[in-house]
Every structure is written in C-alpha cells, then in structure tokens.
Batch of 2 targets.
Target 1
Amino acid sequence: MRLYYHIEETFGDFMKKLDENFFLKDLSDEIKNEVLNGNIEIILELYEECDIDEDKLKLLEQNLNKYSIPLKNFTFIHDCFDLPDSEYEKKYNKTHLYRKANQTIEYLKSGVLSNPEIFNKKYKFHFPIRRCKKHRMKLLDKLFLHDENFIENNLVSYDIDAIENPNIWGDHKEKYSDKFVKYIERTRHKYIDSKNYENMGGYSCETKETYDSSYITIVTETYFEQPYNYISEKVYRPIMQCHPFIFMGRPKTLKVLKNEFGFRTFSPLIDESYDEELDDTKRFEMIYQEILRLNNMSFEQLNSFVYDLKDILIHNQNQILSFSKDNKIQ
C-alpha cells in the first residue's frame, strides 16, 4: 500500500508544514501504525518550481526521523537534475519535459510550429521576460547599455506592473543602471505575443510567428544564482519551435540536455563553455559576451548561421516528440 502526496507549491513553502506532522496528519491510528511499522510506502511528488537544496533535504530527513517514518519506505519525486545523496529514494521526474513533449505533438498536429526553412527574419533575438527576476533584468540592462536600441530592435517582453513584478522590480532596481531604470519606468511594458500576463505561462504562449520572425531565443531560466538545479519548460519552448537558443540558468544544464535527454546544442557555432562555469558572475559575463558576439553578426550571417543549425533543430524537435505519450501523428 502507498500514501501519495502531490504538492503543487514550492518546496520551500511545503517545508514550512512539516512541523505539523504533515505525513501522518489526518490518518487513522491503524494506517498511522502501518506507516510507522514500515508496511506502507510514502511517496512525495513535488510538481511546482523545485527550489531544492541540500539544507532543505536535510531538514526533510530530520522531520522524517522526528516522526519515526522509515526512510527506506519514503520516495521523493522531484524535477531537479542534480541532488545530493540521501538515505531515502529520490526520483527525477522530468515533469516539464514530458508536458512540453505532449504539447509539441498537439502543436504539430495543429500546424502551429515554426518552420526551420524560414530565413531572412526581421529580428535577431527573442528575449521573453515574464517575471522581472534580477538576473533577467540585469542581462537586459547590460544589453541596453551596450546598445540603447537593443530592446526596440528585438522581440523583448516585460511588464513591471504585472502580477508580482512591482515588488520584484522595486526590490532590485537599485542594482541596475540609472539610464536603464529610467527607460523601463518610462515604457512600463513591452509585449511579444500576449498582453495578458495574468494568464500567460510556459504552456500558453507559443506563437509561431514569434519564432518565424527571430533568429535566436535568449532563455533565462527561473534560477541562476540560487543552487536549485531545475529545468523548467522555458528551454523546451525554443526546442519545440526549431529555434536556436543561448541559455542563462544553472551550470551543467546543457550537459544534462545532451547526455541524459539526447538533445543537441549549438557548439561550436555558439560558444557554450559557459555551461561548465560554476562561478555565477563569470558565467553571467560569458553569456553576455556571447550574446554580444551574435548580436554583431549581420542578418546575412545569421541566415547562414541558422541554415547550418537546421539539422540540429530538426533533431531536437524530433527528440522532444519522442518523450510524448503519443509520438505518432494520427
């Protein structure tokens, strides 16, 4: 017999509940005794963004021991590609990969995926920002300071008034340049494929025209400096749309995409050595410099660049389809 807990909140929020004897709460005495005697397995599945680190995992183990729950009968299902060892079992679920794979096949059936044969595009970069997290806005700040036309000349989105962005922007804006802050606070927002930030998400904003009209996606993952080795749906969006990308997130992510999931990335046409850099400051600068190099390419050079990547882009789209529950077109 198993007890299954499906958690749709961050791991940090969930951890606050453990002192309430979460796993045994509301169980009958009979079931509770079966758990404590090791006759019932407990499965915890974390579905939301995985802010998991070593300290939180130790706290989880301490709480299991506190309530005498046998560790050998506890399984933690998560969405992080690198976690420290523990006495209980952990399973990597790849939730976003599977969900995005299923969406890819639906988009393919509906004819709303970008065409890798399209060249002569209008924009160099597609840089979507929904939540104005510090690393995203810091990167946009540096690109803006390098070229004040960068935002206007590319597909860039932000809305500092949307959802929780006023707080995020207010907490970090003193870290950005005055010129950038003045520009953002004057414009307030810039949209790509949707103005409805309330309902926008990684599974609801896949506009084919966005990818058909731009050469490269700048993917800024949920976490950059925080030690949470989590891959969200963000990197799978350009993959499903046959779009090259440069990735700003946790180190070793590209390595996982290649070695564990079978995707191909874009080295040597894109210098991806940043993926091996553990120092956040150095990795940030490497990514920024590579974006500048690509930005300095002419549109004719970018046409050749994407043409040379075409086989990789098609391979990646086929590879994400292989993770879907039904990878055949009916």
Target 2
Amino acid sequence: LKDQILKNFQRSIIAGQIAKKGGFFGSEKLQVSAVLFGFGEYLVTACAPNAAQQIREIKARHGISMDRASKTAIGISYKDLGILVAEQWNMPKTVTESMKTIGNFQVKKSDLAPEDFLPFVCAFSDELTELSPEGEDGTVNGKELKKIWRRYRHLFDIEPEILEDILVASRDQVGKQASLLNISPKRLKKAPAPCLK
C-alpha cells in the first residue's frame, strides 16, 4: 500500500509536468485522474493482499501486463475494476474515462479536445513511473525511456532528456513529501504478512 500511495503521488507530479511542458494545461481533474489511475490495483492490494501477491507472481512468471495478470487471477482487469467502482461511487466521467486503456495511439493531436488528453497524460505518466532508477543519481534506462517516448511524442512535444529530468525531479519530490509523512520512499524488499485473510 505504501508503494501504491507513493506511486500514485509520483504519477500526479509527472502528469502535471508533462501537461505543462507538453502544451496541455493541467487542472484539478488531471491531478485527480492521475492519482486514481491505478485505483483498481490499490483496491485489490488493500482488500485482498493475497490476490494482489498472486497477480504480481503471475505477471513476473509469464511476462504479461498487470491487467492481464489480474484478469487471469481474479476474473477482471485492474483497470476495469477501478472504473467499475469509480462509476458506482459516481466519480466524474472525466476521471473514469482517463482510466480506460488507450486503443488508438495514432490519433492526431489536432483531433483531440483538451479533456481528450487526460487518458494519454495519465497513461504516459503511469508508464514513466514504472521505470526503475539506475545508479545513485536516479537516472533511468535510456532505451526503455525512448521506447515509451516514441508512443506519445506526436501528442507531447517533450524530448527524452526533459522526461528524464521530470522523472528525477518527481522522485526527489516524492522523497521529500514521504519524509514529511514519516514514510520511507524505499520499496519494500519483502512483502509484509497480509493483515487480511
């Protein structure tokens, strides 16, 4: 849960910077959408930790996405679960729309209304938070970073070097905020015993 909270916070920071530097002005909707993008995974981690652990093991064993692994283990993808609960809680449509899987990466920037960018900003930010830092300076694998950048470069005019700066700065900011909350930003090496059966 700690890792989930910090990841959600980092995703929100990155989304705000991508929106600002990419020519799409952020808003409260963007921040909320970025935080709740991983809502389904958070729910399972909180309410069914054993299932969450099983999903991580399936993902690692078969090299598949977290959504495919969750669908295999619990019959519904994390994304669909998050959307389902968010809709039942009457969250704004912009938030639930931003959680959906992007089906068309070839869409033109000129064809998108401002709110249509939300799913792309959130998905872009989420992929970036998955990049693990390398070395003490927190830099990332340039090859992996460029692979993600190529999918979104036609929508956001941001060079890979700027993205790396955003990533490093976001990790620093997460670390500072975590210290204020007395939470260690380091990932747990071993999962604690689940509090729920």
